[in-house]
Amino acid sequence: MINSASKLAKALVAICCISILAAGCASPDSAQQSIRLLTHQDFHVPSEAIADFEQKTGIQVLVFVEENANSMVNLLERSSHDPVADVVLGVDSLERRRVTEKRLVEAYRPIDIDHLDPSLVLQDAMLTPVSQLAACLNHSKSRYELPQRRLNQLPDPKKIPIQAPTSFDDLFDPRYAQTTVIPDPLSSRLGVYLLVALERLYPEDVDGVTPWPKLVDEMLRSGVEVAPSWEEAWFSRFQPSAGTANDDSRSLTWGSSGMPAVSVRFIPELPTETDIAVLDSGCVKVVNYAGVVADTPNRRDAGRLVDSFVEPLFQYGVPDRYGSRPARSDIVRTEAWRRFGVEVTAIPIDEWRIGPIWEEWLLTWQQIVEAIASGEEPLPPVVEVTLPSR
Q: What's the number of domains the chain is made of?
């Protein structure tokens, strides 16, 4: 497995050289006994399913891993004249438009497509959905509960918690902002999905609504903490059950509806319950796709590999560390997801409207962060002016 795009071409050459040395003189048929799969670090590839595919077909899967979905698609685009892979896996909703418009993949309908969630299937068949994610706010249950006390004991005003958040708007309330940690959009895909949710709820081109850049400015100035990665935000700074007077951990964070299931993955035995609640407000649905790379010399085997992504073994193992779900509607979910995953109302990302403009939103985010760090004054309030009628 190779983790650097810059080493991909050299690695492929090295693999070919090793094969030639081992086989003496390789024939055209033997060269097609392997297939190249390009994915990225944020997408979980079920190793058991890949091993099963190799055993059943006799085809070796060479997996190359890019840093994220964006850099993965960048590599596909740069090498479109001479494909570096036969199959791509982990194209998310933010990259779908570019992959399709640039013709980086070609149409393919997997054998078991009828088992996929119909709402995820694309009519043009350019990409095959393999998993879905509902990105949402998560919060602690216990840290918003009143502490236990005796009947004759008066509550301590300093220890009375605020009520649990009920909507996405609470993120901009200073009381909740000071208890919130979010992943940095500049270094975390989950952070980018937060910007997508913000822009959808508070677009800049709607009259009478405070645009999202102004809300980001208020949110950061009110005390929202920004962690360099979602792992840092979730596993280090977000501590649901922590609770001492001097504890500075956070009780509200941005994750997904499957995060309660993620939190128990490393526990030897599943608990009876978790101290995590998912807020069914402002959630956005993200779809992860696979596709046959355009102009691959090995289209037949590429299609067979994409077929395997829709099969039960792969679909059962596909829920990743973000807390995603399979794209199949009939698959039995993992025990952790069945116990602790939460069904929410998630609005699908408008892939064709957003396209590549989310990268401009990152620049806006960066400008706001730098302005606050340099001591600039807050953004001016949005003033609504009513013109006199003639």
A: 2
State which H helix or E strand residue 176 sits in: helix 174-177
CA distance between the termini of the chain = 70
Residue 206 carries which DSSP code? S
Same domain, 303 and 265: no
Long-range contacts of 201-206 (CB under 8 A, 24+ apart): 201/168, 201/282
Q: Which string of b and e fits 215-224 if b means at least 16 CB within 10 Å? A: bbbbbbebeb
Element (H, E) at 38: strand 34-40
Token pair for 20? 């030639």
Pairing between β-strand 276-293 and β-strand 87-92 as defined by DSSP bridges = antiparallel
Range of the domain at 278: 135-148+157-285+354-373
* 177 alpha carbon, distance to own chain's centre: 23
Query: Is residue 244 domain-shared with residue 316, that is, in the same domain?
Result: no
Question: Do residues 325 and 286 lie in contact, with contact meaning Cβ atoms separated by under 8 Å?
Answer: no
- Which of 237, 218, 294, 230 is CA-nearest to residue 258? 230
Length of the chain: 390
Greatest Cα pair distance, the chain, in angstroms, is 89
The predicted model scores a pTM of 0.84
pLDDT in tens, 225-277: 999 999 999 999 997 765 544 578 899 999 999 988 888 877 778 888 889 99
Q: Which of 25, 23, 30 is nearest to 60 (CA)?
A: 30
Q: Is residue 326 part of a domain?
A: yes
